[in-house]
């Protein structure tokens, strides 16, 4: 099973939709079961949480929600870093993953990517003794002097939008959390806080991955997004009208409960847990390139009606409550399963 994590704040209610589109792109193109972890704060409302659960249920995957409280010692060092306000505190959640999710390995994705390939390819990358696998930042040379001032090599500097974390390997380094705090104490002028910190703490022992696993849209010469994870890392995002990824974004949006064609439902209280994992189909799910993803509306509606009829039966069964504990102790979250 692929372990996948997304993290966001949702003050205007839009980022839950973007996260849903990322998940739809993963689910549509990935043949293996996916266990999703959503890191969020109080801004994720119950209606959007319900929609995320519904989306995972449609595709027979599981989803878990973690209401994050940043530990006090990290809040203290963050207070001196002005650039965090430009990114939101949610960018810091990925720095806490070794203390948050009790799995050996996990893929992290930003909410401004579209996964136009089978995510199993990335999941199967062998990290060996490396802390993580990541992709070189394709725009970093424009600010190479700033990166160098942090003691980092721009030629090796990786982007934090797509990362495969070897969480057990990181945990074996008992000083990882304190090293992270020390970075912010020493470099409060950092302009890319989470990314700089990850490069300082783990950059000496990471596995460089193929560019197609984190392909910047702004550097794409032919705008061919086939068999890639496309990252809209610039000012222009895939959800912006007229952007390079707008059509692809809309196609994946139409697979979600946020689709304009989706029947409107009254808001419900979201379950505090992920749905039971349903029986997996043996055949591979349909995979398609960006050019062949333009689904016919009639087929889409018929498929949606079919999965909605099955939804109630899939929701029955095991439920998982997420219980947060003190992160400075570096213990893991305890998952309590109820039947």
TrEMBL record:
Low complexity: compositionally biased ranges: 260-278
SUPFAM superfamilies referenced in this protein's UniProt entry, alphabetically: Nucleotide-diphospho-sugar transferases
Sequence segments annotated as region (Disordered): 260-293
Pfam families: Glyco_transf_8 (PF01501)
Name of the featured protein: Lipopolysaccharide biosynthesis glycosyltransferase
Keywords from the UniProt entry: Glycosyltransferase, Metal-binding, Transferase
UniProt cross-references to InterPro entries, sorted A to Z: Glyco_trans_8, Glycosyltrans_8_dom-fam, Nucleotide-diphossugar_trans
Superkingdom to which the source organism belongs: Bacteria
PANTHER family to which the protein is assigned, alphabetical: GLYCOSYLTRANSFERASE 8 DOMAIN-CONTAINING PROTEIN, LIPOPOLYSACCHARIDE 1,3-GALACTOSYLTRANSFERASE
Residue ranges crossing the lipid bilayer per the database entry: none
Keyword Metal-binding: yes
Bias kind Basic residues: ranges: 281-293
Keyword Transmembrane helix among record annotations: no
